[in-house]
Amino acid sequence: MTRTEEPTPGRHLDVRGDGPVVVLWHGRGADSRGVLDGLSELIAAHGRTVVTPDWDAGHADGGRADLLTSVRRAREIATEQGQDPDTIVVAGWSLGGVAAVSLALNARRLGIGVGGLVLIAPADGPRATDPITGQPLPTELPPGAGRCHVDVVYGDDDTITPPDMVCGLELRLRAAGWSTSLHEIAADHGEVVGATYDERRDAFVPARSQRAADGARTVAAIVAAASPSS
């Protein structure tokens, strides 16, 4: 069952499933939570509660308020379900992956804990502005000792965040002492989350291809495995 909430006026998020809580962030396209419906349902089928918000990198704050609101709501849901809110998993696709990295880097300053991180085709580099801080990810990442494990996923046919970019971010995290796992999937940038690019709409939309279905299924299993069992 899915319920849609309005944590702040005019801003929406979907909550699916029951179990350990996962926050799932879409990429740059404004208010695109629907693109991740299929992936969200697959994660929920693993016995997880999935919180999927709308957010907009084009807002004056880069989407920061909506992203952090979704984390606060996810933590509330975890507490309501008798879980430790510091064990929630945050999964982000593309620019949402940049935001997820930033959340983990700044978790202590924000006064929260993150139980696990799944970066799905994340961007990196000087042109990838982090929605949380408004800056690119730091060149020198803070030490990862004692912080959450990070799963990094990339599509071998991705031309938007190419494998070299994604693997480079994983290497930077690992070099800073973060615990990481790297996962390669036969997919492009959209297929890795079960989506495809629609040129007419100039946006990603849910895909129907077998490769996209396989990509989403694989990613759902990785996300589910990143959180503790209920």
Automatic annotation (TrEMBL):
Pfam families: Abhydrolase_6 (PF12697). Residues 22-177 form the AB hydrolase-1 domain. Signal peptide: none annotated. GO terms for molecular function: catalytic activity. SUPFAM superfamilies: alpha/beta-Hydrolases. InterPro entries: AB_hydrolase_1, AB_hydrolase_fold. This is Esterase. It comes from Aeromicrobium chenweiae.
